[in-house]
Amino acid sequence: MDADEFAALFATHRGELRVHCYRMLGSYDEAEDLVQETFLRSWKGIETFAGRSTLRAWLYRIATNACLDTLHGKARRVLPHDVDDSAEPLWLQPFPDGPDTAAVDRETLELAFLAAIQHLPPWQRAVLILRDVLGWRAAETADLLDHSVPSVHSALRRARVTMREHLPERRLDWARPSEPTDHEKAVLRRYMTAMERADLTAMATLLAEDVRTTMPPYREWFQGRTAVIDALTTTWNPRSPLYVGRFHPLATSANRQPAVAAYVCRDDETRHAFAISVLRIEGDHIAEATAFHDTSVFARFDLPMSFPASHRLSR
């Protein structure tokens, strides 16, 4: 097999490997790097493959071990409500929906799942993903990770306990479709309208009483409808020194959840990238909104950093 043939074969698995590395690391940027590392390691070791397993299983072995190497001694990635005071945090990143996520079970890519899995040690994280997410048998997982089957069973039991402790209360009862539902899209449209009109009353009716909003990379976060509306009262007020600007929201999706790409226009004729907010919707209300204020993520969603205010961007 020459390099071009192998590259073509590898390309058929690149998307799922990117998702796998993202689940392990919580970082889209690092997942991209680890997929490339997996390609380099696998091509370098192609002579050792010799068809002893499927190519897919062999690539997962390499990718998982590359992720474990990266995670060794590294702080977990967090959202603001999980930040402690020990060090500058590494932030969880959103994953744009597209071909890579088309066949992914929604519950295993949502931010709630990604935030919870960050509480697992790397070894337990790998076992949980391979067993409960990818559906690998215990013996297959043990072989891939070079551990015994009993150690895999033990790690999985402990990982499941930790996940139950950190997932939202109703998360284990969800039976969610892969795509955002029509109802969720309707709630999203109402959210966007309230944002565009700076309508605090409409926004208040959309927020769950115990809603949580976070704004990585800012450490500040808000719990409860009253706290969120109080904050918006300041940032949406043109007379306030903390005024953000006029919003132009654009519907998108990330981590198999409804999302909004928000642009703002304040004193000039240009709309500027502001944040991508990923929403967790329960019933008629928004239970959680995670607004990623690192505007570099807009490029991953194939969105411009700015555009003229006279132009209405749509998708």
Task: Based on the model shown, name its key terms.
alpha+beta, globular, single chain, 12 helices, 315 residues, two-stranded parallel sheet
Notes on the structure:
46% of the residues lie in helices and 19% in strands. It has 315 residues and is α+β, with helices and mostly antiparallel strands. The strands form 2 sheets. Strands 3, 4, 5, 6, 7, 8 and 9 form a 7-stranded mixed β-sheet that branches. A two-stranded parallel ribbon has the order 1-2. β6 (257-265) and β7 form a beta hairpin. α5 packs across α8 (149-166), α6 (122-133) crosses α8 and α9 (182-197) packs antiparallel against α10 (200-206). The model has no long low-confidence stretch (mean pLDDT 92).
Shape: globular
| Secondary structural class | alpha+beta
Number of helices: 12
Number of strands: 9
C-alpha end-to-end distance:
42 Å
The fraction of residues in strands falls at 15-25%
Give the helix/strand layout.
Elements: H1 3-25, H2 28-44, H3 46-49, H4 55-71, E1 77-78, E2 90-91, H5 111-117, H6 122-133, H7 138-145, H8 149-166, H9 182-197, H10 200-206, E3 207-215, E4 218-223, H11 225-235, E5 246-254, E6 257-265, E7 270-282, E8 285-292, H12 297-300, E9 306-308
Parallel strand pairs: 1-2, 3-8
Antiparallel strand pairs: 3-4, 5-6, 6-7, 7-8, 7-9
Task: Give me a quick take on this structure.
This protein has helices at 3-25, 28-44, 46-49, 55-71, 111-117, 122-133, 138-145, 149-166, 182-197, 200-206, 225-235, 297-300, and strands at 77-78, 90-91, 207-215, 218-223, 246-254, 257-265, 270-282, 285-292, 306-308. The chain is of the alpha+beta class and 315 residues long. Strands 3, 4, 5, 6, 7, 8 and 9 form a 7-stranded mixed β-sheet that branches. A two-stranded parallel sheet has the order 1-2.
